[in-house]
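Running low. Invent one:
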Amino acid sequence: MKLIHGLFLMVLASVLPGCDQLGIDTPAAEAAREEAEGKAIGSACRQSGRALEDCYQINRRAPKAAIFSGWRDMDAYMRENKIEEIKPESAAKPAAEKAGTPEAAAPVPAKPAEVAEAAATKPAAAKADKPTEAAAARKSRPALAR
């Protein structure tokens, strides 16, 4: 029994150093990745002209210290090179701006009579379409497949 345990431990000891190749992150590597992601988020927020507090609110899972560090670094870089903020073209407009537009209005619910009429016509239309579709499918198949 002790021989089997010894062999098992030797095999296990030779396999475990390869855990890095399996993609299992160490705590230090995971912390470094989170720090880098936070800096990237902060840099992107600064470049797009977003306030630091808004960046914190949008990215709650990222560490605030890393976001601030990235934001500060990008701010210094943009001031040094006189780079203007880049406003995203697809930025969502605040609800206050949309309130006056017709697109922001809620859709008007259908009247109960219209709903009942639509429900009554749908099954009839579906039944009428099915035989013609099936016949067309049969005609399009080769003779051997029938």
